[in-house]
Design a protein that fits this description.
65% of the residues lie in helices and 0% in strands. It is built from three helices and no strands. The termini are far apart. Mean pLDDT is 77; it is low at 115-123.
């Protein structure tokens, strides 16, 4: 027969087990959420890189390159240097964010002082 003390003990054990399961579910949900965010930022970074790569491709045909046709000074980048530099900075932000997210250093006090947006600082 169950006594009052054993009933409380079983109830307490069930409560602890339920708490542990809730914590595991919360942790797994946080991992899924972080993974989804990382994936989206990485996808944007790769898209930006593909745009930069396409913009930096030589506009001459292979025959023109073999014949030694010079590259006109304004041919690269296609959309201008300002656009290229803005997208390179954006790519840097994406990659830095992914690094921080995956490194779990989202605390503002532990941010990298050498990040391009902060400017280089001497130690």
């Amino acid at each position: 027969m169950l006594t009052l003390r054993s009933m409380k003990s079983q109830s307490s054990a069930a409560s602890v087990e339920a708490d542990i399961r809730r914590e595991i579910e919360r942790y797994n949900a946080a991992l899924r959420h972080g993974s989804a965010i990382s994936y989206e930022v990485l996808k944007q970074a790769l898209q930006t890189w593909e745009e930069l790569w396409a913009e930096c491709q030589d506009p001459r045909s292979p025959e023109e390159i073999l014949d030694g046709k010079p590259l006109a000074p304004g041919d690269l980048p296609i959309h201008g240097w300002q656009s290229l530099l803005e997208r390179m900075q954006l790519l840097g932000y994406y990659l830095h964010y992914i690094q921080r997210l995956l490194g779990r250093s989202l605390d503002p006090e532990t941010e990298d002082p050498q990040h391009p947006a902060r400017g280089k600082q001497d130690p």
